[in-house]
TrEMBL record:
It comes from Kitasatospora indigofera. Removes the 2'-phosphate from RNA via an intermediate in which the phosphate is ADP-ribosylated by NAD followed by a presumed transesterification to release the RNA and generate ADP-ribose 1''-2''-cyclic phosphate (APPR>P). May function as an ADP-ribosylase. The keyword Transferase applies. It comes from the Bacteria. Belongs to the KptA/TPT1 family. Transmembrane segments: none annotated. The keyword Manganese does not apply. This is Probable RNA 2'-phosphotransferase. Its EC number is 2.7.1.-. One of its GO terms (molecular function) is NAD+ poly-ADP-ribosyltransferase activity.
């Protein structure tokens, strides 16, 4: 599978497994899983044929590790980022003292007024490093990186979870827990 098809397939799988499973006629279970054979048959019916080997390639080569197979390899789900209601079953985890959020500069005024909100997704996504935050913010315009005082949030009772691909998740982040790291926009 060439790189262009791999990226296109990854984007299509993200849409199906995170936001619109009905677009190909599948239903996610309560934890976001769908059987691989059911997904592949549905994709074929919707003129998006994909072999198991191609699916394996997309999962294995995705640099963001967006997808995960069940332990038995029979089911697949998105690691996080859902706008449809699922419970990934992630345990509350003590976060590192500081986490980061990448956004676009043009959103900063609203964020410092309202905080970080999940918008159409179930959770706010945070990263453990500034490099990832810069890449995320770059998708939406000129990037800005915000520092999240995760230690203070945890001490105040906010819950954090970490997805299989290392993305930190929380319900929201109030403005008082946000700042801009020195040297980063």
């Amino acid at each position: 599978m060439d790189e262009k098809r791999t990226v296109k397939t990854s984007k299509m799988l993200s849409r199906v497994l995170r936001h619109d499973p009905a677009s190909v006629g599948v239903t996610l279970d309560g934890a976001g899983w769908v059987r691989v054979d059911v997904l592949l048959a549905a994709l074929a019916r919707h003129r998006r044929p994909l072999s198991r080997a191609e699916l394996d390639h997309v999962v294995e080569t995705n640099n963001k590790r967006r997808f995960a197979f069940s332990d038995d390899g029979l089911s697949i789900r998105a690691s996080q980022g859902h706008s449809v209601a699922v419970d990934l079953g992630l345990a509350a985890t003590v976060p590192p003292p500081v986490l980061y959020h990448g956004t676009a500069v043009h959103t900063l005024e609203a964020i410092f007024r309202d905080g970080l909100l999940p918008m159409s997704r179930q959770d706010v996504h945070l990263s453990a490093d500034t490099g990832t935050a810069v890449r995320v913010g770059s998708r939406h315009g000129r990037p800005a990186v915000l520092t999240v005082d995760a230690a203070a949030m945890a001490a105040a009772g906010h819950e954090f979870r970490v997805s299989a691909n290392g993305v930190w998740l929380t319900d929201s982040v109030a403005p008082r827990y946000l700042s801009r790291p020195a040297g980063l926009t």
